[in-house]
Design a protein that fits this description.
The chain is of the alpha+beta class. About 35% of the residues lie in helices and about 20% in strands.
Length: about 190
């Protein structure tokens, strides 16, 4: 379900100039690719995948629909830096996850693991959270382009989070905005 749409702030009072927009449009017409300048330092990679009329699916890291194999609770606690050695730790884990130490070496509940993947650990959820947290521009109506669209679940019972850039100009403007914010994130086309 579409939750919100954000347009890019262009022109007066903005880091994205109308001249850059013209250059990006020209580049797209000539090459049929977005203008994706590289930041001086790259710490993360935002992948974009062509979704035809839905625009470009964005994922922080390579996109995959399936979560990794279900870990044990202990493996999960270790990977998340959750203390689990003391009695006090065990009580906190019980309060958060309803798991006692005798069950730490059992696999996590598959449904819990899949939900966590869709809401927290998956590359699309990570991109959603990252892009929701930065100021690319104001919330807008559905007809304006370029824009980012933020989605929460495609149907009832679906917990997934994802974000689409609506076109190649949206991708170009997003990369320029990330660079303006000095965020070491490079957008690349996913395969």
């Amino acid at each position: 379900m579409l939750q919100s749409q954000r347009g890019f702030l262009i022109g007066a009072g903005s880091m994205l100039t109308t001249a850059f927009v013209s250059d990006a449009r020209s580049f797209i017409r000539r090459t049929s690719r977005p203008l994706l300048a590289s930041p001086s330092h790259v710490a993360q990679t935002l992948h974009c995948y062509d979704s035809a009329e839905a625009g470009y699916l964005l994922s922080l890291g390579e996109w995959t629909i399936d979560p990794p194999p279900v870990p044990t609770w202990r493996e999960f606690f270790i990977s998340q830096g959750i203390a689990h050695q003391t009695e006090k730790d065990a009580e906190a884990i019980w309060a958060d996850h309803l798991i006692w130490p005798r069950d730490y070496d059992k696999p996590m509940c598959e449904r819990y693991w899949e939900d966590r993947w869709e809401l927290v650990d998956g590359p699309c959820a990570k991109a959603y959270r990252l892009l929701r947290s930065i100021d690319v521009g104001p919330e807008i109506g559905p007809t304006r382009r370029p824009r980012l669209e933020f989605h929460e679940g495609a149907h009832p019972g679906d917990n997934s989070l994802w974000v689409n850039a609506m076109d190649q100009l949206s991708l170009s403007l997003l990369q320029a905005r990330l660079i303006d914010l000095k965020m070491p994130i490079k957008i690349v086309e996913g395969t």
